[in-house]
Amino acid sequence: MTMSRRIPVVICGAGPTGLTLSALLSRAGVQSVLLEKEQDLSDHPQAHFINLRSMEIFRHCLGGLDKSVFAASPPKAQWSDFVVCSSVLGRELARVDNFKNDAVRMGQRVTSVEAARSSSAQGPAVTVADAATGAREVVLCDYLVAADGAHSSVRTACGGGPGGPGQILGQAGLGSMVNIHFTSPDLGDWLKREGRRPGMLYFVYRPEVVCVMVAHDVERGEYACHVPFFPPFERKEMFTPEKALETVRYALGVQAGSAKAPHIQLVTARPWTMGAQVARSYQPVPRVFLAGDAAHQFPPSGGFGMNAGIQDAHNLAWKLAEVVQGRADAALLSTYSSERRPCAASTAAVSVLNLRRSLRVAEALGIDPDAPAALARLLGASPDHPGSSAAWAAGKAAMAVGRRHLRQALSGSTLQVLI
């Protein structure tokens, strides 16, 4: 194991939050090292919407990055509509118009953190393992920023457990989802062929699948399909590549092998859990800060997650620069948590409100979003627990009844509901 020289700031996690923080610190003249456990960049889509405040940060603080974002963005006409439908190519029920970095070291997994005992003590010691060689190194720093996602190992190591200062509080388990990333270069042509303007979000309701499809880039054929599943009656393992492709075809309203079907290529299918949670403190121990998903998680309704992380980085970067370069007392850093945490708490509340509003469409079609959880509780209280064959059969039968009800509801007129 080797020991590195001391570095002012170590950032754990090279997602949007960590990259933004690294770029901002670099522009402020503060040296940092950005550690990312993955060896390559991920092409699996997650966030897809950058809001006004984040664009302001890109424009004023990152050398006009907003222009590059605009240049890479699809046309506004393809991103202004939310569409509720029986399938993407089927019946439409409703339509709403609505950098330069310091060192980035890929394949570096943080295995342990020895935090400072006080703000006046020396900074954290971060032990890092190289994914390719297994070699270990201790990186010394004045400040450590955890931007390593919802399952942050740094947060866990620095008081993220129950009752700890970094504990995540709020509503966990709001839903179990699978994000199916697929490409279809000709799907956009099919959408236009139907005489419609492509939308940004498609809320699909049909007996075979209920999901939200995100059109990341119609011209390049990049899409993601977010599909809920309901433990214990359904499991993430059921989404094999074949099942994922079948689900996408149902969502599009096409059959495999049909001459009229657009070509579909599966990229990845990954499960995730929806929650609305905020850390008890953004500075759980001296000289360690939480940012992005390590500090907060929101439902995707509203597109706040990545944007909140970018804004965390903006708030923290200039304060770190002032303190590291000796222009401000370290007490300035305590304002990061007091300023950003209330923003996250209010954003979580708005996200949950948006989620509840979006479920009005399902309720108008006679679907009770809380029914699977209620059924699981009911069966869990019975002698035949949810894992038993009898409870499993009862759950599947109840879901089949729900599908028949939805089929009948979809046979009616165009949906009229305030969303």
From TrEMBL:
SUPFAM superfamilies documented for this protein: FAD/NAD(P)-binding domain
Gene Ontology biological-process entries: ubiquinone biosynthetic process
Assigned GO CC terms: mitochondrion
The FAD-binding domain, residue ranges: 7-85, 104-347
Matches recorded under InterPro entries: FAD-bd, FAD/NAD-bd_sf, RIFMO-like
UniProt entry tagged with the keyword Flavoprotein: yes
Gene3D superfamilies (UniProt xref): 3.30.70.2450, FAD/NAD(P)-binding domain
One family name in Pfam for this protein: FAD_binding_3
UniProt-recorded Gene Ontology molecular function terms: FAD binding; oxidoreductase activity, acting on paired donors, with incorporation or reduction of molecular oxygen, NAD(P)H as one donor, and incorporation of one atom of oxygen
Key words, A-Z: FAD, Flavoprotein
Taxonomy, superkingdom: Eukaryota
Protein name as catalogued: FAD binding domain-containing protein
Organism: Tribonema minus
